[in-house]
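Bench notes, bay 3.
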Amino acid sequence: MMNSSRITFFLLIVLLSVFPFNLLKAQDYYGSSYSHKRVSLGLTFSPNVSWLRYGNRATVDKKAEIGYGYGLLADFSLAENYAFSTGFLINNLKASSELGPDYASTTYDLQYVEIPFGLKLKSSQRYFRSYYGQFGFTGGIKMSADKTVESEEKVDLGSAAKVFRLALQIGGGIEWQLDHNLRMMTGLTFNNGFKQVLRDGNAKNSYLAFNFGIFF
């Protein structure tokens, strides 16, 4: 009888120990946060609004145009709330300008292969979402560069468009946890070129991108 009571007491202790542990595991599974991954790869599509900058030249009439970018993204986790962010993007930038009364209005189409690299800072995840800020640089190599003067046909810019594009980039947004291994990213990025891209007028360019991405 004494042995039976001890066995019953021991089983009760085991059940009480295991039950809360299983309950915590269930709450974590159905909770609003998941453990971070060491490496996350994703796809992105980013419409942008781009414009040219001519320094202090007040006679230039400038107009922003709409372009787009797409490609791959990669986040390498450094800690739970920090990651090194990079990728491989095809970026199409478009802008118009008129250098003065003696010049016709010209629209420029510039396409680059770009590699962004920077630091992503993320908040703790709550209610299946986290907020992030991002700061870094982008380096680009020209794939093509064309111009259209008013209603004429497109003309290849050739050496009139410089080969390399370098820029400072800052942005932020929200990451939405869709599943354990699936996140959606929405955000804004301001990209400010600090190297001339066109020889005419020594123009630099900047753009504002609306970022949409899926991380797997």
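Next record in the batch:
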Amino acid sequence: MSPRRKPCFVVQKHDASTLHYDFRLEVGGVLRSWAVPKGPSTNPRDKRLAMAVEDHSLGYARFEGVIEEGSYGAGPVTVWDIGWYENLTERDGRRVPIKRALADGHALIELHGEKLSGGYALTRVSDDRRERWLLVKTRDDAADARRNPVSTQPESVLSGRTIEQVTAESGG
């Protein structure tokens, strides 16, 4: 019997109408997705706005390139970080499935990526027309208020290219 595959997470840097980071978690056979305008932080004091966006297929996790004009989200995309995650959400001492945790509006996860690691909390703060969430780093050994990987590590973990290189290579 082979070990169970761990669910993936991916953070894609996406220069569409505005530059943002798409934070995606594998949940129920799709990538649940949030647009994070400032990108994820390693500082527990930072509360990053995360706007819920449409689910994506799992195959999109490794997509890097340019989404053509006329398509939703047109613009260059890089895989800024990728790895796997563990759901740590509990209620009354029992683990809550990630799908249920997100439906309830609060999930605690541990990321195992190349740039991001340790605990993160996703908390829904409004569910009107467009769900708003907060993505916050937990206080753990991976927390670092001095580190800013969004600005110091702009390159793709898959290709080593920056978003500007992807744009230039596409003739944009």
